[in-house]
Each structure stands twice: as C-alpha cells, then as structure tokens.
C-alpha cells in the first residue's frame, strides 16, 4: 500500500519545465526570461534563436522541453501554446578568492540560478472584422 498520488499543481491546460543550477546570475537570466514572457511559443523560440545573449541557447532548450512535456505528457496542441510564465530563482553561490596586490585578496562570487518555464494552451480568438 503506497502513498496517494500528489495532486497536479498546474491546470490541465498547462505544462512546465524546470532548469536547475545553471551557471549564470539570476539578473542576467531574467533579462532573457522577460524577453519570452507572454509570447507564443513559435515567436519565443525565434527570439531565442537569434538572441546574442550567451544563456539564450540554454533557455531555448528548456522551452523546447516544456513544449515536449505539454505534447507528450498532457496531450496539448503545440500550435496553441503560449509562454504563460518564465521566472528565475536564486540557487547556490560559489565563493572564490582573487589574489590582489600587497598580499590581499578579494572575494569573487559565482552565482547559479534556477529557471522555470510554464506553457499554457489558449484557444484561438476569432476577431470579427
């Protein structure tokens, strides 16, 4: 006799992907996450493909993972997906020392981040002309 299955945290028309401990500061990662927030998945993937930010490729892989989760695990329509949420959290910070002149040392912090992307299936709105 096992434990009861935990209820799903997301709605039935949502899927998510989480990227943990990525080696970039949360501030820099949030710039890329803000770029795709609220967009259609196809537009967000195109923006990430041509972005000059170093971390954009990793964010693109995470978004593709969220789309694959939506399609394979939850049976959602890929063409109707929108990036509902893209948020960044802090993870560990490695502390290192940098040698300076006269026998002194300065602290160098190397931050890590977490990224969560939630995609939502939306119905196409027909506009009356």
UniProtKB/TrEMBL annotation:
Which sequence ranges form a coiled-coil region, renumbered to this chain?
A: none
The superkingdom listed in its UniProt entry is: Bacteria
For this UniProt record, the keywords arranged alphabetically read as follows: Ribonucleoprotein, Ribosomal protein, RNA-binding, rRNA-binding
Show the Pfam families listed in the entry. Answer: Ribosomal_L22 (PF00237)
Keyword Secreted annotated = no
Instruction: Name a single GO cellular component.
Output: ribosome
What does it do?
Answer: The globular domain of the protein is located near the polypeptide exit tunnel on the outside of the subunit, while an extended beta-hairpin is found that lines the wall of the exit tunnel in the center of the 70S ribosome. This protein binds specifically to 23S rRNA; its binding is stimulated by other ribosomal proteins, e.g., L4, L17, and L20. It is important during the early stages of 50S assembly. It makes multiple contacts with different domains of the 23S rRNA in the assembled 50S subunit and ribosome.
This protein's assembly is summarised as: Part of the 50S ribosomal subunit.
For this chain, the family text in UniProt reads: Belongs to the universal ribosomal protein uL22 family.
Q: What is this protein called?
A: Large ribosomal subunit protein uL22
What is the organism of origin for this protein?
A: Chelativorans intermedius
Its taxonomic path starts at: Bacteria, Pseudomonadati, Pseudomonadota, Alphaproteobacteria, Hyphomicrobiales
Gene responsible for this protein = rplV
């Amino acid at each position: 006799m096992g434990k009861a299955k935990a209820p799903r945290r997301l709605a039935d028309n949502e899927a998510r992907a989480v990227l943990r401990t990525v080696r970039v500061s949360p501030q820099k990662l949030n710039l890329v996450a803000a770029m795709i927030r609220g967009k259609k998945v196809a537009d967000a993937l195109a923006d990430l493909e041509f972005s000059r930010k170093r971390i954009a490729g990793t964010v693109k892989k995470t978004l593709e993972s969220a789309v694959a989760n939506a399609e394979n695990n939850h049976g959602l329509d890929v063409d109707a997906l929108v990036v509902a949420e893209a948020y960044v959290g802090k993870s560990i910070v490695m502390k290192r020392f940098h040698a300076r002149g006269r026998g002194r040392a300065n602290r160098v912090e190397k931050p890590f981040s977490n990224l969560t992307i939630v995609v939502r299936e939306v119905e196409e709105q027909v506009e009356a002309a």
